[in-house]
Every structure is written in C-alpha cells, then in structure tokens.
Amino acid sequence: MQRRSFIQIAGAGLAASVSSAAFSQSQLSGPITVINPFPPGGGTDTSTRIIMKKLQDNTGIPVVVESKPGGNTLIGMEALVRAAPDGRTIGLILNNTTVNEQLYKGKLNYNLFRDIAPLSLTHGNAHVLLVHPSFPANTLQEFIANVKSRPGRVTFGSAGSGSVNHLSGEMLKVMGGLDMVHVPYKGIGTLMPDLLSGRIDALFGALPIGLELTRDKRMKMLAVTTAKRQPEVPDLPAIAELYPGYASSSWFGYAAPGATPPAIVNRLSAELVKVMKDPDTAARLANFQIFGTTPAEFTDFLKRDIQQASQLIIKANVKLD
Question: What pTM was computed for the model?
C-alpha cells in the first residue's frame, strides 16, 4: 500500500552511494539468482527482467531470474531466506511481504527483519478503479451511489487475499461505509476473463492494466487510488478527493538473505540505485514510478508499511479466503 513515507524516502534514496572502501570489501561473484514470487510472463517478471538486465550490463555478472510462485508469495520468500548469504541470491519483495506479517501472524517460517536484508525500494505503480462498460456508473460518485443502493451485491475481484487489489477495495469499504463483496482469484490472469465479461463488477487494478483495457473501451476507469492525481491520467480524480487519507498502490524492491555481509548488501543496494537512476531504465519502465533507496531507508519503509497494513487488515477484518 502506498504511504506518505513511500514518497518521502524515495527521493532521498536516489542519492544513495557506497564508498570505494566498501566496494573493495564486497566483491560480487555470479551468477546472481533473482527469485520472483510470481509466475513468469506477468508484470513483476517483466519489470524484474528489465532491472536485472541493466544490473548484469553494469556489473558484467550474469543474472538469472527464477520464478517461485505460490502461497501468497510465501514460497518465494522462504526460498530467499534459505539461500546462502553470499550475494548470489536476491529476491523481489512487495506489498505482500508486509501484508503477510499480519495475515499469517504467528504462522510464518521466518522472521522478516532477521532473515532478510533489505537492499532497495526500486519502483511502484498507481492503481485505478476499473468497472465493466455495462456497469451503471461513469464517475466515482456514481459508483459509490450504486454500491450503497445495492448493499452486498457489487463485487470486486483481486489477485488473492491481502493483494493490493484486495486491500484497496477494503480501504474504500472502510472509509466509505460500503458493503461490497470481495472475489479472490489466483492471479490477475485468472481474474481477467470474469472482469472482461462482466461477471465481476470492479477491479482495483494497476494503472498500466487500466490504460491498456480502456484504450479499446473494454473497461472504464473511474478514479486513481493514489493520494493525488497521476500525470498519465490527469483528468481522472483520486479517491482521496472524496475520502481524504485514502492511498493505495503497488511497491517493489529487492532483498538478500538476512546474514548477507553488510558490505555486500551495500554494494548490491548501490548497484540497484545506479540501475534505477539510469534514464534507460526509466524509459523502459515508463508506466512505473521510479525510486531507489538505501538499505536503512527501505528497512524503515517496511516497518511503517507493516504497521499501516496491519491496522487496515484488523479494521476491515480481512481473512484468508
């Protein structure tokens, strides 16, 4: 979920660097394996491959992306924490990482801040409220009115319990006093046929998906989930304009196993920041917000995100489906 801290630390992180002395103590060897906790071919896979290709080009070290999907990203996370802490394995972490701290409280096979070493918060994207063209609403206000007139009948899909799609809807339910029905799927790919056919009413989907689906009028975008309007869709209002304080979006970053030596952690972090500052990376990730933080900044962000995600999960009584 996007937080004010998300934006605050992102700009500061772009200035991150590591001294030459630290570099001399942190020789990286390869190949480097990057664990993606989702199936190949999706948005996380594509963005990870763009970032890691640039990392490989910059360092001359082979980088291999390995998909380990399942378990609400827990399979990938557990593979990461079991890996040798030598800088040759890193993993993609994202909103699910912090959400799972509350969703699976007392059931996780790892301790987040002992068993991973955060490297850098790298990128993220806004989400939008999408509805089928047949849905009788063309504005956010009309959508809210429709939901209120039909309590318990309007449905919204998600990529699974605790996903950004899910919690974005739960936040709107809490702040708007709405009664909507959550329909979880195993991923956006499995959800899409039901969304496009109108079998489910709405999706709080990533902005790139929204732009794609509205170009040929397969869906309607009603609002963005970020605290402010987005430059890609300046005429689309933010949900926060109706419900101040509402803010939700995807974030992505990378981590190493927890016992990885600090010098290697700092070297990997600096290399990731270098990648994210490259104009070519920004061009190839045009639909994403670009960040890049130090390990300490990313750690602080994770702690705040856990706290705020946990508060929402408790307030909305979110359960695993």
Answer: 0.84
